[in-house]
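Dock 4'-deoxy-4'-aminopyridoxal-5'-phosphate; give full complex structure.
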Amino acid sequence: MNKWEENVRKVVPYVPGEQPKDTNVIKLNTNENPYPPAPEVREILDSFDESRMRLYPAPNADVLVDSIAEHYGVDSSQIFVGVGSDDVLSIAFLTLFNSDKPILFPDITYSFYDVWADVYGIPYKTVPLRSDFTINADDYKCENGGVVIANPNAPTGVFADVLVIEDIIRANPDSVVIVDEAYIDFGGETCLPLIDKYENLLVVRTYSKSRSMAGMRIGYAMGSRKLIGYMNDVKFSINSYTMNTVTQLCGAASMKNDSYFRESVNKIIATRERSKKRLAELGFKMTDSMTNFIFASPQKKSAEYVFNELKKRRIFVRYWNKPIICDYLRITVGTDAEMDTLFTALEEILNG
Ligand code: PMP
């Protein structure tokens, strides 16, 4: 190693799911939405005047923030927006977790949490889930520098009742509790109403799944005015202009069409429930996912074998060669037609 390298910050980065160059694939590996965004988003793109690109975007993303605030009936000062919820979570970790005590999150959860903790030098401790992948609130009733819970959890799809989440928040008045609700629109119950009761609660959301806009990169967080203020102070100490003008406008447009949103989410829920039945018939063991993916373990062949065989057939799902979850595949819910192609391939792979 060269001398200069000794002073370099070294990290092991998060590995996102594969984005194959070949577009002729069935892509069920990164929990994207198979349906297009609301038609109002198209209208923004069609009418956007490119001369606006000369100007910096609105640093506070007011149009977007106000549309989110109106949608949820909260004050604009309670909303923080970022470039995907990864950006929001990253700023939240950096701002809100500045203690010598370890932050706590489940051993099986979104695998970016430990990466942010590492890059920011935040001590952390992972808390084992129960064997059925549920959370035991009592495990979070100890000294800590913060708590992060994805609800529903990823990659398990398991939803924890709001009473369980509130139990954790109530037990932790001295640290911030982040609830990552990336998948909440697919059937779970949000803990958003609790932000008025607990000043130390941050609820994080994304446009990437239920709003079909992963490529635009929009995430947001809702919490007390104080907590959001601290996050904005850090954000404005790094980069004032994180989100571009087109994205801000598209995000606001999406929020305006609630019936389209509900319709597309309901289609995915219907396909998910049908897919669970079909996977059970194919001998998969699975959790009762409340998300836009299914966490399923093939019983006849190994998960790794099925993953590789599906890939050969140009069907991409997600597999992790890690303890506890190495027997599972995470399958994003696609269109009915995509799922039918998947089931035909699975029949061939499992019975062949
Ligand atoms: N939280 C969870 C639990 C996720 O699964 C994801 C998707 N990888 C994210 C946050 C980040 O999503 P995005 O940055 O696209 O908003």
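Observed: The longest strand covers residues 201-206.
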